[in-house]
Amino acid sequence: MEFTDVVKARHSYRGFLPKAVDQQTLQDVFELANWAPSNCNIQPWHVHVVSGDACNRLREKMKAAAQHQPGGNPDFPWQGKFSGDYRERQICSAVGLWEYQGVTRDDREKRAWSWMRNFEFFDAPHIAFIFITDEFPETVRLAGDTGMYAQTLMLALRDRGIGSCPQTSVSCYPDLVRDELGVETHFKLLMGLPFGYIDPSDKANDFRTDRAALDKNTIFHN
C-alpha cells in the first residue's frame, strides 16, 4: 500500500476473524515497528504478544475482572473528563460507535455489552500488551516514545491487511496481565492492542471517526 493509503486505512477495528496471523508475519511486523523513533534511541517499550490459548485464557479473566471490579486499578489513572471541543469529539466517537453496533443511549444493557466488548478483545486472536518501565522519572517522555512505537506498529499491521484497536480500557487491570504473563512489577501497562484479520460482517468495523480541520490544531509560522 502507498503510505497515504495505509494512514487513512488505519482506524480502530472492533471485530475480528478467528484466523491467526502466522508467526513469520508477526515477526516481520514487530521487527518493523521497532524502527520507531525514541528520545536518545532508548526504545523504552516492552511488548508482550499473546496468541492462541494464552489469549483466550486472558480474555476470560479480563471479562471476569471487568464484571466484578469495574474501573480496575490502572497503573496510569484516567478520569476521561474533557470539555469543549475535546468533550464533543469524545461524545461523537461513543455515539457514532453505538449507532453502528445497534446501541441506543437509553439502552443500559446494550451499552454494557458494548463496553464489555473491550475486555473480550473484540474476539481478536492476538493482543499486544505494551508496557513502559517506572525505573526513571521521565514517564511522560517514555509514554510519548511508546506512542510513536504503537502508531508505527498499527501502520505496519495495516500494511499487511491486519486491523487493530489501541485500548486503554484493558490497561485498567495491569496486575492481572502481569501475573498471567510473568511480567515484573516495574513494568507499567500503558495500553493493549488487539489485532487480527478484519471481520467484514461486523458493522462496528464500518464506523469511522472524523478529524478536526487543520486550523483547529496546527499553526504555520513564517
At CATH's second level, what is the architecture? 3-Layer(aba) Sandwich
Query: Major beta sheet, specifics?
Result: 4 strands, antiparallel
Number of separate strands: 4
Number of domains: 1
Q: Give the termini distance in whole angstroms.
A: 34 Å
CATH class: Alpha Beta
Proportion of helical residues: 40-55%
Strand content: 5-15%
Shape: globular
- Kindly identify the CATH topology: NADH Oxidase
Strand order of the largest sheet: 1-2-4-3
* Tally of DSSP helical segments: 7
CATH superfamily label: NADH Oxidase
Give the SSE string.
Answer: HHEHHHEHEHE
| Averaged pLDDT | 96
CA gyration radius, whole angstroms: 18 Å
User: Are there runs of 5+ residues with pLDDT below 50, and where?
Assistant: none
Sheet/helix structural class: alpha+beta
Can you describe this structure in just a few lines?
Helices cover 41% and strands 12% of the residues. The protein is built from seven helices and four strands. A four-stranded antiparallel β-sheet has the order 1-2-4-3.
What descriptive keywords fit this protein?
4 strands, 222 residues, 12% strand, NADH Oxidase, four-stranded antiparallel β-sheet, 7 helices, globular, single chain, 41% helix, alpha+beta
